[in-house]
Structures are given as C-alpha cells and as structure tokens.
Amino acid sequence: MIVGTLRIRPAPHRHAEVLEVFHAIQGPVLAQPGCLACHIYEEPGPAQAIVLVERWESQGALEAHLRSESYRHTLGAIELSGRPPEVCFDYVAATEGMDLIERSRTPGRTVDEKGDES
C-alpha cells in the first residue's frame, strides 16, 4: 500500500478555493481503481494548512492517478499555495490493527520492532 500526503498552506484568501477543489475531486479519486481512501483535513492555527491523504493499493494505481484529470486539478490547487507544498509518498509493507494493541497489552507477551512475538 502507498500513502500519499499533500500538505499545502494556501494564501488566506485562497483557503476556501483549495478546499472546494479538494472536495470536488474527492469522489472521482475514490472511484479510481486501486484507491483505498481519500481524506481531507484542515490544520488549525496560524499555518492553516490543508492536507490531502490518499491510500493506493499499488504503484500502478498511484501512477495512473498521477496521470489523471483529477490530479491535474490537485496540481492546480497546489498553485494556490502561498508556500511550497509538502509532498510525501510512504510505502507501507504491513498494516496491523487491534490485534497489535491486544498483543502489546497482554502481560508476559512482547512484540519486537518486526512484529514478532516472544
């Protein structure tokens, strides 16, 4: 899985416009093959950043998305940023949930950095 994170800080008068673009593309992005999630967050405070987080099931799905019309709109929103964007693509080898919490909290059981129990 690949998690793409885009954090932009639009000029104050462009904040609503960037949000509008991201909300308009959210549905089409979610409909793309291989898209597992697409979330929009607003960071409070003086920076007032807008963060777009997408999860993709494969490199091919991500690359198809980066060539899509929806991503062209994302690039347009980046142009409204008052500062250079923060762009990050994280490649996730494994994902765990409640099982990890339960294993970690069970007395006498330990889990190392690799997820192996002892």
Short descriptors:
alpha+beta, Alpha-Beta Plaits, 4-stranded antiparallel sheet, 36% helix, globular
Strand order of the largest sheet: 2-3-1-4
Structural class: alpha+beta
Beta-strand percentage range: 15-25%
Q: How far is it from the N-terminal to the C-terminal residue, by CA?
A: 27 Å
CATH topology: Alpha-Beta Plaits
CATH architecture, please? 2-Layer Sandwich
Shape: globular
User: What is the H/E order?
Assistant: EHEEHHEH
Helical residue percent? Answer: 25-40%
Are there runs of 5+ residues with pLDDT below 50, and where? none
Annotation field: number of helices: 4
Number of individual domains: 1
CATH class: Alpha Beta
Main sheet properties: 4 strands, antiparallel
Q: What is Rg? A: 18 Å
Mean pLDDT: 90
Q: How many extended strands?
A: 4
Describe the structure.
This protein is α+β, with helices and mostly antiparallel strands and 118 residues long. Helix content is 36%, strand content 24%. It has helices at 15-31, 59-66, 69-78, 98-105; strands spanning 2-8, 35-42, 50-56, 86-91. It is globular, with a radius of gyration of 18 Å.
Summarize the entry for a quick read.
With 118 residues, the protein is of the alpha+beta class.
SSE blueprint and pairings:
Blueprint: E1 2-8, H1 15-31, E2 35-42, E3 50-56, H2 59-66, H3 69-78, E4 86-91, H4 98-105
Antiparallel strand pairs: 1-3, 1-4, 2-3
Helix pairs in contact: 1-3
